[in-house]
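Q: Give me the 3D complex with magnesium ion.
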Amino acid sequence: MTTTLAEAAATTAAAATTPAHSGAPGAEAAGSAACAARISHVSKSFPGPAGSQLVLDDISLDIAPGEFVTLLGASGCGKSTLLNLVAGLDAPSRGRIDTDGRPALMFQEHALFPWLTAGKNVELALRLRGVPRSERRERAEELLELVRLKDAHGKRVHELSGGMRQRVSMARALAQESRLLLMDEPFAALDAITRDVLHDELTRIWRETRLSVLFVTHNVREAVRLAERVVLLSSRPGRIAREWTVDIPQPRRIEDAAVAELSVEITGELREEIRRHARH
Ligand SMILES: Nc1ncnc2c1ncn2[C@@H]1O[C@H](COP(=O)(O)OP(=O)(O)O)[C@@H](O)[C@H]1O
Ligand SMILES: [Mg+2]
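A: Here is the predicted complex, encoded as structure tokens.
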């Protein structure tokens, strides 16, 4: 019964693709060989008390295969809205989004099923992908090893720390074997030391798997620490204000002088964006 519920929830989330999104299995993404995701002239409005509210305005962004992009912006600027559109959980009001297959998702809240063990949470993702029962346990163990949680297979969610839960979430996202991983402030609720460790882990896993990653954050240092490219969104409406290529060699430390220097520059730009917005 509980497994049926879990399956239903996961299937609903996975099936919520829309006509303006071509990431469903079997759908050939336009230019999929060259792009993990292509966001073309996407706008999004929501109905509000004072009429329609334009949240995203004419966003165009390509993510190359294997590229790590961070999407940076102030709270409420539309980062999660854009990520949900790329995930196919909602439809753009205008424009279109093509992804190379269906992306995997990871949120700030772990969204693990508490009645299942860490291992079973990962196995469920494998089962939904059609991996035969005989292979699931071994594959789940490999994935937990990849996130350095080899001994947590039999542990329930409440027995795990916040950092460990996010590691399991990462293993579960990787179980989907998507070519694109979408991450919405996945470490924002963690303490600074745990976050720092998970930055290292994410960088290592990204370099090992060569996945494309679109990582949303409001934390400038985190954006620079992780990304090959930082894309800054303005607020109300969200537009691409500027982007930076980060050519600081990996592995980086968040306290590296080069990370700090670029963060200062980006923070200046972000402040300017917020000031500009406050004048309107
Ligand atoms: N489903 C929705 N209906 C109405 N407004 C929404 C909806 N989702 C988001 N918004 C609005 O869109 C704006 C951007 O939200 P969000 O994408 O969550 O920002 P961020 O993730 O950058 O903090 C906010 O003003 C929010 O209130
Ligand atoms: Mg958000």
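A quick observation: Strands lie at 37-48, 51-63, 68-72, 94-99, 104-106, 180-184, 212-217, 229-233, 240-245.
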